[in-house]
Records
---
Amino acid sequence: MPRGIFITLEGLDGSGKTTQIRKLSTWLQKRGLDPVVTRQPGGTLTGDRIRALLLDARSAALSPMTEMAMMFADRAQAIAEVIEPALAAGRIVLCDRFTDSTEAYQGGGRQLGSEIVLALHKILCGGLQPDLTILLLPSFEASIGRARRRNTRAEAETGANEDRFEQEADAFHHRVWDKYREIATREPERVVRIVGDLTIEEIHEQIVEAVAEMLMLREAKG
């Protein structure tokens, strides 16, 4: 059985990843494919507990190194429990965030640098890389504004405050933004950038174009 395909979506909080991964999953299902959809942090019982700690505003005292270690603990569990078994079974895996997020948020935002993130990825994740990464890059102001409004609504509805990252100063998010663009420049064959304040459908069309091209190339190779 041929190995499956690993697709990730990346971007700042509020960039529209969750909406687009849901639409892409529906598009694949209509074509007879049955993708596994997951997210990071989270996606496993252990990961969901880690996610709750990482996103909770009450976890403000986490050191950058602790934060990064928790991200990789979540990721290693997700690879072992969800991602690798699905790929071995020939499935398509759609993942909302992967190591690019850690490089952007902890490497860039927390200023730990890319070197330590990539070294830990090699050790703890076996160097697993997505076959395709879609990087959503709407304007900085649009992304952060949507993320903060979303978390305000969620807190009003559930009482849970999961905006620990959104509470960071704009300088932090600008460093994340810059690191994402650095990653895309470094790995242009893997990372497809979708830039600008486009409509949901316009973004979906560009994502579908990139995924369809990859599927055709995979089919041509047999």
---
Amino acid sequence: MATIGQELGKTVHEPTPDLPEGFQMTELGPLPKEWRVVQLGEVVKLTKGRKPSELMSKYQSGALPYLTAEYFRNGIPKEWVPAQYLSRLPTCSKEDVVLIWDGSKAGQVFIGLEGVLASTMVRVDPENQLEHRYLYFFLLTQFDLLNSKTTGTTIPHVNKEVFRNLPLPLPPLPEQRAIAHVLRTVQRAKEATERVIAGLKELKKSLMQHLFTYGPVPVTEREGVAMQESEIGPLPAHWRVVRLGEVVEVKGGKRLPKGDEFASGPTPYPYIRIVDFKNGSIDIGNLKFLTEKQHRLLSRYIITSNDVYISIAGTIGLVGSIPEELNGAHLTENAARLILNTNRLYRQFLVVALQSDIVQAQIQARSTKTSQPKLALARIKEIPIPLPPLPEQREIARILQAVDAKIAAEGARRAALEELFKTLLHQLMTGKIRVRGLIPTTVDSAESAATED
């Protein structure tokens, strides 16, 4: 994320007669007249973390987690600091702003955690004129600058002078609280959406386990399903287990000729790579394209919207289908094309069957275990898959596609909230959007209204 100064451009020092009413020109560009610009070092104090002399692997009463960089990434403590040592160590509460000072993530900022700071962390304490969460959101806008200005040879760390000299737009304290309140509201909505997505993914995982064990029957009726033991686990008695080569034709993709480069821009000949495989389909955001000459040379190595892809080098076992708009696209040599016998196999059922744990285990078992794992085309044909009757294949695919659609919808909502958050972060902290009306006395307590100047 660019800094506020960077987003305002390189001419922020130049006076302009077109200042909006109520604004002043500052080193950060136009800001409301009642705002000040101060150096960050003038309004914060840094407290460096320190490694405790004793740590425990299990929690005991009164202990606090030891906040290493790993803890800040996943929120799971692995070590604890005994209560008797806490008074002599730098700690943080859930209201404190914490910055990673050393390491590859130097410049990353957190709030809302409680524990003992590792030596790679600093607690950033604001003075009375600066609100904690407003400070947190400001530092979010500075990550790229702080990380790019790290110093150190083997272990990078934030440059203290750069940090202290950061220009901070400083509204009156009530407006800081209101700005933080608005941003926190959007942030919470995004977090709630992420929890919904996580729940839907767990639901899909449970559904797949049920559907590929008992078939498309309600959970309450699974005891009435006649079962069989198969080489890939328990299955309904009327299902079959077949080798993939019995129901699909397997063909490989093709790399560009040595020394060739992709076309400089879009052409009618898209080329699908492993990095484009996403969520059982294709991410079209960064597609590469072939020239007319390359297309003619590689014309036999295409994939259609009736086929299924599977990755066979590097990351093994990514599977999905091709959207209609990419019908006839060229396929990387690191993936294979599965051409279905549609009299026996429903395309979307094959996708979810290949994604299931029981088949993924078979795929991994047939891959070479080297620094660059590979799955030979001949071994793909040997992979056993469950084969229900076609109507059951369609029903299984329909159930799982409904969950996928909900996950995709929530994913789009999360992306929209993320974009809204980024826009508001800049607009609110430059005064382009002012928060007026009821100003909360604390960040999380009152309503606020946002209006554009």
---
Amino acid sequence: MKSKYIFSVLMLTVVLISGCSRGGRISPQRKDIVDAVFASGDLKMNNRYLVTSMSEGYLLKSFVDEGDTVSPGQQLFHIQDNAPQAQLENAEAAYQHALRNMQPDSPVLQKLNQQLIQLENQLKTDSVNFMRFRNLISSNAVSRADYDKAKLAYDNTRSQLQAQKNTIEDTERNLRLELLNTKANLIAQQDNSTYYTITGKVDSGIVLQTMKEDGELVRKGEVLAEIGAGEFIAMLEIAEEDINRVALGQEVYLELNTRKNRSYKARITKIYPAFDQDEQSFFAEAGFTEPVPFLKSGVQLQANIIVQKKQQVLVIPSSCLLPNDQVKVEGKKDPVKVETGIKTDEWVEIVKGVDENDVLMFPVK
């Protein structure tokens, strides 16, 4: 990635620029200088997400278009769901049937309770008869056979009554289990039906793009739309050789392709740790520190990440610097070795080696 700058604090005069191209003389001078890392990238929304299908079918209806604002729970798409709808209706009917059966006046329990009442009444009758025959047998007023018959009737009715109570308990337990099972199935079918009605899941956002038209076949896991939410951020691609110079909080100047020749202030908010093999770059995010109207997702941009700034340092034009950080000084036969600081396309900071009293010779081009 070549170094490039949106702006330059230092501007050469027309005379100086023309002198550089022809060869000439100049003395080092004091100026403000900025060291920056160039990056390219685009605008994104920091909470963007993809809307995917959890089922397969034909897209019956899209309820949103690109640019629409959506809110959590808002219906976005409806996929054909004839079979799941029938299953949901069956599950609802089964649950309602099980719920009715659990009511005290349900036909199932009502019949069993009526039988219980009949047995309770019968037991009372048999109990009276048995007690009477038991009193009479002691005085030999009735035969032993009549007494045994009364006792057998009493014992049978009492057993039948207990069996009926057990039947009612078992039936109620089975009905409760059936109710739980049908409820669980209903919930599962309701959840399954939500796969066919797709809604917004997070904070309010904007439909950035849709991928399907009504009537198209949608497969499970296929993307239907991209939703953007939150604030706009600049996603920056940074060259491998520059990434170690970038740090959180550094000032950034962004130029959007939609607004050429104007820069906006931002700061580095996140640096991704991994190298992207596809883009052959590292990635970082920058958040705006000033209001910027009419931002749109996907807009391409260029950025200068400010690594350091220095004021009133000694500088020379970049064209004066010879290989191995040497300069040609008037009156000296051999080039002079200098110690440099910040280097830009136009200027080089001189830390040591020459001063403002020296006259430098431009190479002839």
